[in-house]
Amino acid sequence: MTTEKIFRSIALGAIALGVGLFALRTVLPNASAPSSYGTAENPAAHARDPIHLIPADARLVQPDFSFRDADGTLHHLKDDVGNHPVLIHFWATWCGPCLPELPGLNTLNKAENARLIVLPIALDRDAIPTVQKFFADNHIDALPALAPGADLPIPEALPTSILLDKQGRVAWKTAGAHPWNGPDTAAILTELN
Residues near 116 by Cβ (< 8 Å), separated by ≥ 6? Predict the structure, then answer.
């Protein structure tokens, strides 16, 4: 292939890519438009927004999954649903955006453990020993070290938090770090309890 044919192929490929991206622009939603962040229409609210609950009649039941504790005991989400709201938090020690919110989750679990169940499920390899060392090194003393079971639905992004109501329905979901010490958290727990 001559140099001229190579450049012609590259140019045609670039033009095709540009046309394809232009066509997709009309089909995909505008990712930069913040108008629906944090609303019921967009339950995967951006982390900078306060918690806005999904209306009760629009909530979907979170499918059951399993996870292991530090003793190796297998638990099921369905066993934690019923008496209190449940906060499922997917994270990993290698996830930079996950780490700053762990002290807030730790404080939240200390302050609200009578009316909220916090399940911080780590997606690390060898999760339990890795998380136990991380918690000890970072003075995280109120969160359990939990590892995913084989049937865990892997989230699309880390961190991801899912707040369930007492019936096990998704009341709020976010991908991205959230300030767990905000006034909206206490108000939402009062509303869900």
Answer: 84, 85, 86, 87, 108, 109, 189
